[in-house]
Design a protein that fits this description.
By secondary structure, this protein is mostly helical. The chain has two domains: 153 residues, no CATH class; 46 residues, no CATH class. It has a two-stranded antiparallel ribbon. Strand 1 and strand 2 form a beta hairpin. Helix 4 packs across helix 7 and helix 8 packs antiparallel against helix 9. The relative contact order is 0.09. This is YecA family protein.
Length: 219
């Protein structure tokens, strides 16, 4: 197994067990207290090794295909927590992949992307498990839509959907810090300007007509 966050030699074992036993309890922990490692669900043990404060590792690329296979093997389980983790990994990938790539093979990179793509048939059913009329449910829906975009190779769309932040200042039309950060990370210097221009055009039109009677406005 390639290097991970804390170098736990049991990471391959955790991944193999997840394929047989499932991810464990996503609602863990049941109460705030100190827990021994063996009390942690498998998904939590794996997560602590492959992502830390935005950092990802060579082992992340080996673990993600296993996590995607877990979704396929346990389709009746609500995997919202796992999907959120995959989206966070995707957010980190543009920044860290150039550093990690020398430690990976072409097969590792191919298997990672193929695993994400393999999620696509399973995500609609997962989407139907959530109620988008609640704040938490809507966030889960947005996360799954972001993962769909990442799985389809649409890095920009996935980044915007998965950040859960406003993209524009509605008063000025200026790109929000979240939008600028996403654009800079992906090298998209054009889109914030285009979005800003479109928003400003709408804002100028609104100001030009805001004092006119409603029935006189043309849409």
């Amino acid at each position: 197994m390639l290097s991970s966050c804390y170098g736990d030699p049991r990471l391959p074992e955790y991944l193999e067990r997840m394929l047989v036993e499932g991810p464990g309890d996503y609602d863990w922990p049941p109460a705030p207290r100190h827990y021994a490692l063996e009390e942690f669900p498998l998904w939590e043990r794996v997560w602590g090794q492959i992502w830390h404060q935005g950092d990802i590792y060579p082992a992340t690329y080996i673990a993600v295909p296993v996590l995607c296979e877990v979704v396929a093997r346990f389709p009746a389980v609500n995997h919202a927590t796992l999907f959120s983790q995959l989206v966070m990994i995707e957010h980190s990938r543009p920044r860290f992949e150039p550093l990690i790539k020398p430690h990976l093979t072409e097969s590792d990179l191919h298997n990672y992307q193929a695993a994400l793509e393999s999620l696509l048939p399973h995500l609609p059913a997962q989407l139907r498990m959530h109620d988008d009329a609640t704040p938490h449910g809507l966030e889960d829906v947005q996360t799954i839509l972001a993962l769909m975009a990442f799985a389809a190779g649409q890095q920009w769309a996935g980044t915007l959907l998965g950040r859960h932040y406003p993209l524009l200042d509605l008063d000025t039309g200026e790109p929000s810090p979240a939008l600028e950060d996403a654009a800079n990370m992906l090298g998209r210097t054009d889109l914030p300007h285009n979005l800003k221009a479109q928003r400003q055009q709408w804002w100028n039109s609104f100001n030009a007509h805001k004092n006119e009677p409603f029935e006189d406005l043309e849409f």
